[in-house]
C-alpha cells in the first residue's frame, strides 16, 4: 500500500519552524537565568540541582531538534520513524541521567559521613 504524502504548505512549515526557533530562544534565556541564579546561591544540593538543570536543558534541545525533524516529514511513515527514534533516544538518555544523578547523590552522601 502506498503511503500518502503529507501535503503541508511551505508557509505552514516555515511558520512552525520559526515558532520552534522562538520557543528554543525563550527556553535558552530561561536556562541561562536559572544557571546564574543557582550559581549565586550555593548550598548543599546545588551541584545536584545544576546537574538536573543540565539534563533538562539537554532534553529540551532534543525535543526542539525532534520538532524540527517532524516539521519536514513528508509522509506518515517518516513521521512515525522520527517519533520512534526520538522515544528510543529519550529512554536511553533518561537511563543515563538517572545513573549519573544516582552516582552524584551517592558521592555527596559519602562526603557527609
TrEMBL record:
Record InterPro entries: Phasin (IPR018968), Phasin_subfam-2 (IPR010234)
Residue intervals of the Phasin domain: 21-108
Domain of life of the source: Bacteria
NCBIfam families registered for this protein in UniProt: phasin_2
UniProt protein name: Phasin
Amino acid at each position: 500500500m502506498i503511503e500518502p504524502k503529507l501535503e503541508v504548505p511551505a508557509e505552514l512549515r516555515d511558520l512552525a519552524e520559526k515558532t520552534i526557533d522562538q520557543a528554543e530562544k525563550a527556553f535558552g534565556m530561561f536556562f541561562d537565568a536559572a544557571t546564574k541564579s543557582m550559581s549565586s546561591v550555593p548550598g548543599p544540593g546545588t551541584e545536584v540541582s545544576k546537574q538536573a538543570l543540565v539534563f533538562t536543558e539537554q532534553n529540551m534541545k532534543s525535543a526542539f531538534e525532534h520538532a524540527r525533524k517532524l516539521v519536514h516529514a513528508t509522509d506518515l511513515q517518516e513521521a512515525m520513524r522520527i517519533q520512534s527514534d526520538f522515544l528510543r533516544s529519550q529512554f536511553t538518555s533518561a537511563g543515563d541521567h538517572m545513573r549519573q544523578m544516582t552516582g552524584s547523590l551517592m558521592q555527596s552522601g559519602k562526603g557527609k559521613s
